[in-house]
Amino acid sequence: MKRLRTIMALAVSVLFLAACGNLSNSTSSSGGATTSKSGTTLTGQTSNGDYEGVIKNGHYLTSKSRGVTNTEDSGNVYNVKSFESGMQNLSKKIYPPQSYVFQEGQYLDSSTVEDWLGRESSSNPTGLNPKKNKSTSPTSRNPIYIQALEEQDYMKQSGKSLKLSGMTIGIAVNSVDYYKKTQYGATYQTNISQAKGEAYAKDAAKTVLKRLRAKKALKDVPITIALYRQSSNDSLVGGTFFAYTQSKGNQTTINNWSTVNQKNYVLPVENGESGPKSADKTAFSNFKSQVTSFFPNLSGVTAQVHYENGSLTGMHVNVTTQFYSQTEITSFTQYLAQAAQKYLPAKVPADITVTSATGETQSYLSRSENGSKFQAHVFDSY
Amino acid sequence: MKRLRTIMALAVSVLFLAACGNLSNSTSSSGGATTSKSGTTLTGQTSNGDYEGVIKNGHYLTSKSRGVTNTEDSGNVYNVKSFESGMQNLSKKIYPPQSYVFQEGQYLDSSTVEDWLGRESSSNPTGLNPKKNKSTSPTSRNPIYIQALEEQDYMKQSGKSLKLSGMTIGIAVNSVDYYKKTQYGATYQTNISQAKGEAYAKDAAKTVLKRLRAKKALKDVPITIALYRQSSNDSLVGGTFFAYTQSKGNQTTINNWSTVNQKNYVLPVENGESGPKSADKTAFSNFKSQVTSFFPNLSGVTAQVHYENGSLTGMHVNVTTQFYSQTEITSFTQYLAQAAQKYLPAKVPADITVTSATGETQSYLSRSENGSKFQAHVFDSY
């Protein structure tokens, strides 16, 4: 179940360097990235919109359940990034980075999370996934619903130390459960409808909240539980969050859920697929035709687009082409900046990563939500 | 001799988006990146410090000798980037980007350059490299001196079109010539001293200038010839320019050469190697020890540093580490910004590329010469 999460070279979040956050000198006289060899310090902040992280005794305080997930090696890597970034983005509205420090989960350790992600059985009574039944047929077997569970801690300064002041638990539910009937056999799949996955996850969330409240340290802490639906393994974009609940300190039951309305698409849209807004599709299509004609050899141009409440809120564009020289990369990057400026939807955070046919990142451009122009960087060498 | 130039994910030149250059509307009513399907337009400019490039009939005007070089597939890819970027940087002092437009070489075609890069022989009278002698011994054979030759054109607006107003020819000389005695046999090497390579290249430059002046279109054009010494194949940094000459229009002989004093090093310096300034070494070493301790698992930290006239003028830092989550990448990137700010030499353009163990670009940071702070970008996905 453990695996090293391979990570894709795609793109978001331009962090503009800002002064150290207000907490950066809070817990150590040396402060910021100075990293004294003992005690707690913070990573510093490159953007007011991002959390500072916790450094303990000179090392980054990694998660107690680092690297644990149900995701198999062949799983969709987009889900992993999208799940973790999405949890943090959702948390920003509840635990704003101006007042809170981010800490990787310290209260659920690897073996706990591994047990929870397993099936319930006599040897694993805490498994959140259903008991095995006798069937191996895609429609009548009990699938694995809960694919990943992650904890994020949000801290506040308290005297000379940091105090846990909020927690976000992300629960990722499969849309498709991939399974094998025999160890090295063919892969089968059980589809899980939105309704069924949602009901199962909300039920599991109740159990999780009770277990967390049973821990002394978590008795009084605000806990956010966010539910995520994974995309299938053949998708070129990750899944989305669909609900969250906010539990005040001491509250052991979940009374209501807030809906999260997110959609992800890949552009260009394939025939027959439901897609994003027509204006956004057209804008991308115009951009793409400008870009593909730049070089005699064709460029591949795709994009991941993200919608919240029906509005486009971000896009990651990926351009693949064959370069012959460094000067071509520079010229192409300048051209992209102008074309993106002209054709891509305005007022939307966007970035463009330019990759060689062999997979190396050549340059990238980005524009923040309020930025009117693209900033560009060409990777070079001495 | 032809090969597709593979290109490394390393880093320079932060281009901050600026208004279109003064020439961007010069040759077409549509201007900039609008790319009318006929006529000449320009790429637009992301930085005042960079050249705009030429788009003809909707396509980028690629070099007539695109992809031609003596470099073998196993050659040092750093040389390729460093040679081309270096030519452009050198040209900026002579043909400033505010007044000139960059055009990929249009006057020397592939077969011409291929012939010139060959050995002189009865079947190849224009070969710039020496005739084969009978020896195959490393010290008594005639090595291949000239490894690459590249043309860059610098244009000025003239009415509705662009006029060739300057040219830079780069000649890259081997420091080591790699050769085989039999087709699939072992690789041997002939070392070429700085003095010998320089003398040979200056001689070849005379021939090249005469040949260019014999072309009607190049009779009156200012021509810059810049000489570059390649680094060896096992080097982790490219070579450097060591001389250039400026030939006015009509001038058919080379009277004098200007010295270019450039040095490249890789940090940390290996035992016994000559290195950069002690203060810069120490600064990097402090930075490195801060960074490597951040995660429980070790990070690899190296840098390419570039000196001009004895002063550090730029550094590309490369950090490789194993990540388990997107939140770790964000925290690490913020930490790097603070550590780089604190430890790396001030007032030097610097960038940092963070790469996973599997070679994917995770994030990068950069600071321009005048910038006091690092800007950061974390690659993400929906």
TrEMBL record, chains A, B:
Is Phosphoprotein tagged as a keyword?
A: no
The residue range of the signal peptide is 1-18
| PROSITE patterns noted in UniProt | PROKAR_LIPOPROTEIN
Q: Which domain of life is it from?
A: Bacteria
Q: Mind listing the UniProt keywords for this protein, alphabetically?
A: Signal
Q: Where is the composition biased (Low complexity)?
A: 25-47
The record's listing under InterPro entries reads:
CamS
Q: Where are the transmembrane segments?
A: none
> Matching Pfam families, A to Z?
CamS
Q: What residue spans carry the region label Disordered?
A: 25-50, 116-141
Record-given protein name:
CamS family sex pheromone protein
